[in-house]
Design goal:
By secondary structure, this protein is α+β, with helices and mostly antiparallel strands. It has four domains: 36-255, no CATH class; 376-539, Histidine kinase-like ATPase, C-terminal domain (Heat Shock Protein 90, 2-Layer Sandwich); 562-694, Rossmann fold, CATH 3.40.50.2300; 724-855, Four Helix Bundle (Hemerythrin (Met), subunit A). It is 51% helix and 18% strand. Strand 4 and strand 5 (144-153) form a beta hairpin. Helix 1 runs antiparallel to helix 8 (255-336). Bound molecules: adenosine-5'-diphosphate (ADP). The site of adenosine-5'-diphosphate (ADP) has 21 residues, from helix 11 and helix 13. Adenosine-5'-diphosphate (ADP) binds at residues 435-436, 439, 466, 468-471, 479, 485-487, 491, 496-502, 525.
Length: 858
């Protein structure tokens, strides 16, 4: 059940509850009010009963006065009777003595049993349904009663004389004799009234009245039944044998009750209405909250979908880039061969197609990286001139290929040293210039670079103008939309994704820059960007002359010409093809490549041997590149090894991420031979690198790679020398007349390449003092472990330059160090080894110095 339904249900339940409690409260109020009304009616009944009793006594008073007169004037009997009758004609007066002789109204003593008590001196009021009501009073003569004076009121007279109809219009009172017989009904009493009194609820009410009369003088009870709502009541008439009962309609009493009741009802309804309003408000609020919640959910879902999209792109990029890497690498290998013209053309086509495909993938990835917030602007110091050169060289070549004139104007007073993300600025300029070239069939493309300063910021302005197809006015606002390509009919032949300008604009926004476009359809366009860049120094860029110092497509390709036969490179990639491509691309550098197909294999290799550089694939089954790197870093003597990540997943593999993990750098697949070699050149120790002029022919390369060449002490990574015994140079013992440095021997180890040999000699000389200082230090501090590593390196390098004597001495000294460090060495053996080390150290260092002095290129 959703929240809204729950809310509606809760409101309905609460309304029902309020309604029910309303009914209950109403009932309670009515009960309370009726109880109060009963009390009030009871009090009224008491008043009525007094009134009724008083009526009887009113008729009794003249009788008593006459009796009093007779007591003194017995002879006036007849006169008194006549007078009473005259006074009150409804009452038939009479006088009776002990012998039951009567004067006036005849009276049988049996008809009124209570008459006897009057002869005992009591005033009586008696009733006989057939005869009526008898009022009698004794007539005393002294202490004795001689007569009883009475008046009889016949039944037909009773209602008129004793009924209380005049009390009010609603109150109906009946006077009963003590045995319950109806003595005085109210006026207009009919059979209907008899039925009324016989009604069950009225009877029950009367029963309750009688019950209460046991404790009270008067009582009233509320009844509700077939006859309607009434109060029935009753009371004894004081000093008579009569009682009275009666009823009054509820409405007669409840005039006030109803008004209270109505007020309560009104208040209650008001409460209900208020509650209903509140509920509606809450429901609406809840609906809006639910809507916000739905929006939030939708946003989360959209974010998740976006994440999924990014992940999908990352995976897809990996899947596409991996085979693309193989294609472009293999193609590069093909292009290096001597090929028939036709085949070369095919291979060139493959190259440009692969490059185009790579651009598309990169654009898609770039965009998804921006979208998912993975792209960060990384500002560094940079030189504007360098960026412009790089951009112009690349774009210039493209313009040239399309027979377009490419011009660049740079304000010579622009500060050259700026602070910003040079890579992204280059990307933006290349995007705009590439577009200009793409959409210009003939004519020119011009880049104007200018700007204005405000304090320490240069507002760099670059305008790219072309004489191309132009953009329709109505299309201009769609230019920066993602995947929007304009003028499709005309541009069908032109490759593109419709992402370039969207990326450009977003990058500019991230860098607080802006872009605008001016264009005339059919004549050309100008895209102008403005970008604030902090100025690092105010040195002007000067005259920008593109021909002065050509820079190639990337900086990397400019420095790839080297060989490093003594360099040890571990290539880790689960994909055989990638391994083959990378090792083929590196073939010309002559580096010694060891291949591992998994993280575990890589760790094994690193434990066996030390490497200068490890090219480590990121995504591998099982242990991935990052985990492998972390484990590798825990291995001993790994400090000098450089780790380069290879990644086909450009989306998540930003340079910063890999650096943060501990990689020294990263290469994005597919990588060119130039990129790969440039990377090695950057990270191999300089000592193992030989300059480009020494490069061998491919056949010589093959020989060299198998030669056990080492170059120079510093080239030796810190590793356990015992781990690579097979690679150790083995020298014949030096002859007594042998020169200190035998060039022939040295050249042999340098594959008879004078240039390499010269380089090796130079490096040997250059690093000798440092190495001697290191070994002296190890010697005095007793750091025999390091000492052994350095002396091992000296052994190799001495032979590489052709100095067998130093090689031999170093070999023996290394053995002594090894003996000293041997775990199972006895104290005596250790002492012997130590003696040997101490004896020979100074001599070896001296020889090292001498050799270094002589180690000069020819
Ligand atoms: P694309 O990969 O299609 O070039 P862009 O985002 O770089 O994607 O450009 C979007 C569209 O803008 C292009 O498809 C093209 O129609 C138009 N456009 C971009 N630059 C120019 C230009 N210099 N001259 C004419 N049209 C251009």
């Amino acid at each position: 059940m959703n929240n809204r339904k729950k809310m509606v249900l809760t409101i309905m339940m609460t309304l029902l509850l309020i309604f029910l409690s309303g009914i209950f409260i109403q009932q309670r109020i009515v009960d309370m009010l009726n109880k109060a009304a009963e009390l009030s009616v009871a009090r009224q009944t008491e008043d009525i009963s007094l009134l009724a009793a008083e009526r009887f006594h009113r008729f009794m008073t003249p009788l008593q006065t006459a009796a009093h007169h007779l007591s003194a004037h017995e002879q006036d009997k007849e006169v008194v009777i006549q007078m009473l009758t005259k006074q009150n004609p409804q009452g038939q007066a009479g006088l009776i003595d002990f012998q039951h002789h009567t004067i006036g109204r005849f009276l049988s003593t049996t008809s009124f049993p209570r008459l006897q008590t009057a002869f005992h001196g009591n005033t009586i009021i008696d009733y006989n349904p057939d005869i009526g009501i008898l009022l009698a009073t004794p007539v005393f003569f002294g202490d004795n009663v001689r007569y009883v004076l009475y008046q009889v009121y016949p039944p037909e007279m009773l209602p008129k004389l004793f009924a209380l109809s005049d009390y009010d219009a609603f109150t109906h009172v009946i006077i009963q004799y003590r045995d319950g017989t109806l003595a005085v009904p109210y006026e207009n009493y009919t059979t209907k009234d008899t039925r009324f009194w016989a009604d069950d609820t009225i009877q029950a009410g009367m029963q309750e009245v009688h019950e209460r009369l046991k404790r009270n003088k008067a009582a009233a009870v509320y009844t509700e039944g077939a006859e309607g709502k009434f109060f029935v009541f009753g009371a004894d008439l004081p000093q008579t044998d009569f009682s009275m009962i009666g009823y009054m309609p509820w409405s007669a009493v409840a005039g006030q009750i109803t008004s209270i009741y109505q007020r309560v009802l009104f208040l209650f309804s008001l409460m209900l209405i208020l509650f209903a309003c509140l509920s509606i408000y809450l429901l609406m609020a809840q609906t809006s909250v639910a809507e916000t919640e739905e929006l939030r959910k939708a946003r989360l879902e959209a974010d998740a979908a976006n994440q999924a999209k990014s992940q999908f792109l990352a995976n897809m990029s990996h899947e596409i880039r991996t085979p693309l890497n193989a294609i472009s690498g293999m193609n590069e290998m093909i292009l290096r061969q001597k090929l028939p013209k036709e085949v070369r053309q095919y291979a060139s086509n493959i190259k440009s197609a692969t490059a185009a495909l790579l651009t598309i993938i990169n654009e898609i990835l770039d965009f998804s990286k921006i979208e998912s917030g993975h792209i960060e602007i990384v500002p560094t110091d940079y030189q504007l001139e360098t960026i412009l050169r790089e951009v112009c060289t690349l774009v210039g070549l493209r313009a040239q290929a399309k027979n377009l004139q490419f011009r660049i104007h740079v304000d010579p007073y622009l500060p050259n040293n700026l602070y910003g993300d040079a890579g992204r600025i280059r990307q933006i300029l290349i995007n705009l210039l590439n577009n200009a070239i793409k959409y210009t069939p003939s004519g020119s493309v011009t880049l104007d670079v200018s700007g204005h300063r405000s304090e320490n910021t240069l507002h760099l302005r670059a305008a790219v103008t072309d004489t191309g197809i132009g953009i329709r006015e109505e299309d201009k606002n769609r230019l920066f939309h993602v995947f929007e390509r304009l003028d499709i009919e005309r541009n069908r032949q032109i490759e593109g994704t419709g992402l370039g300008l969207a990326i450009t604009q977003r990058l500019l926004t991230m860098m607080k820059g802006s872009i605008k476009v001016d264009s005339i359809y059919g004549e050309g366009s100008t895209f102008t960007i403005e970008l604030p860049q902090p100025i690092q120094s105010f040195d002007p860029i000067g005259d920008f002359n593109l021909d002065a110092q050509p820079v190639y497509e990337t900086d990397l390709s400019a420095h790839t010409d080297f060989i490093a036969p003594s360099a040890h490179v571990l290539l880790v990639d689960d994909n055989d093809m990638n391994c083959f491509v990378a090792s083929s691309l590196l073939q010309e550098t002559q580096v010694q490549i060891t291949i591992a197909h998994s993280g575990n294999e890589a760790l094994e290799a690193l434990q066996k041997q030390s490497f200068h550089v490890v090219l480590l694939d990121h995504m591998m089954p099982g242990m991935d590149g990052i985990e492998t790197l972390h484990k590798a870093k825990e291995l001993p003597n790994i400090g000098n090894t450089r780790f380069i990540a290879l990644t086909a997943t450009a989306i998540s593999g930003s340079r910063e991420k890999f650096l943060a993990e501990g990689f020294d750098s990263y290469l994005s697949k597919p990588m060119t031979g130039a990129e790969l070699t440039a990377m090695l050149q950057r990270y191999l120790p300089p000592e193992v690198l030989a300059p480009v002029s020494s490069r061998q022919t491919p056949s010589a390369t093959a020989d060299l790679t198998s030669a056990p060449a080492t170059a120079e002490p510093a080239a030796e990574p810190a590793a356990e020398p015992a781990a690579e015994p097979a690679a150790e140079p083995v020298a014949p013992p030096p002859a007594s007349n042998e020169p200190l440095i035998d060039q022939e021997v040295g050249l042999k180890y340098c594959n008879n390449m004078q240039a390499i040999y010269n380089n090796v000699l130079t490096l040997f000389n250059k690093h000798s003092e440092d190495k001697i200082a290191q070994m002296d230090n190890d010697y005095t501090t007793g750091n025999w472990k390091n000492y052994r590593i350095n002396i091992h390196a000296l052994k190799s390098t001495a032979l590489t330059i052709g100095c067998r004597s130093l090689n031999k001495k170093a070999q023996d000294q290394e053995q002594a160090a090894k003996d000293y460090l041997a775990e199972d060495a006895t104290a005596e053996e250790q002492q012997q080894a130590l003696n040997y080390l101490q004896e020979h150290h100074a001599g070896i260092m001296e020889l090292y110095r001498q050799v270094a002095k002589e180690a000069k290129p020819q």
